[in-house]
Amino acid sequence: MNSKKINIIEFPSNLGLKKTESEIEPGVIKLPDWLKRHGFHSRINPEQVFRIDAPNYSMDLDKESGVRNADKIIEYSIQQSELLLRQLDGSTFQIIIGGDCSILIGNAIALKQKGNFGLFFLDGHTDFITPALSETGGAAGMDLAIVTGYGHNKLTNIFNLKPYFKEENVFCVGNRDFEEEYIQPILESEIEYFDLKRLRTNGAGNTANQFLELVQQHNLDGFFIHVDLDVLNDDIMPAVDSRAADGLTYVEFAQLLKPLLASDKAIGMEITILDPNLDKEGKYTIEFIRNFIEILEYGKANST
Prior knowledge:
Layout: E1 5-10, H1 31-37, H2 40-44, E2 48-51, H3 70-87, E3 92-97, H4 103-114, E4 117-122, H5 143-147, H6 153-156, E5 170-173, H7 180-187, E6 192-194, H8 196-202, H9 204-217, E7 222-228, H10 250-261, E8 266-272, H11 283-301
Parallel strand pairs: 1-2, 1-3, 3-8, 4-5, 4-7, 5-6, 7-8
Helix pairs in contact: 3-4, 9-10, 10-11
């Protein structure tokens, strides 16, 4: 990606999350400003910065779809897709900052309108469940299911584009919730699934390269990377809404992302879920930024 300019796009949404009893609203909405405050934007020095603020947070459960804030998420996703579609010119890499994982829906709509893209889904959960299995009704826990066509049509078939990503063009990597009922849906899908155990057996770099081979074999127009920072080890990134033991080290994180970001087929990525309210001193944020910039600079210098 060394030939590509970089845009930063800010989509600060928390519509996909159910707030805790102690919150007024989930704090992930502060993430773009929080990263900027700690030098993320200045280190990247983007060509342009764009931003769309989300509709006001609520806890509304949409009876039709079974998803909280469904109508607001649809409205926001359409706005996101219109902005992103204007930037997808092939010469610019998009770094998109959430928010929660529901921002994937708007990004997916834009990509589907642009061509046939793959998805490298890097997350501590599969996010491949429907409302019937969800304990919260939050779209942030169902985003991979939604963008591959599972769930109510009002979310999965915006602009009659269902599915936004074909299952066979998706890698889901890093899940460490091994409850049988939770993982059964993704095991029955055509998604290439690497939970944390399988990822470590297969090797992080090898897994990334297998995805790049898939992109080539399926003659895809490119691919998008989803990064939920709860994929990182809980010791190095506890500032997330759904914590669990273990997770990727920064070495493993780099082994996965470096080959992907070095590929000219990489069109963009989203960063989600880091909650500034849970990292009040910025300790974990600063370490994330340092590691991420190093990975990004490798990608720019080793383009293929």
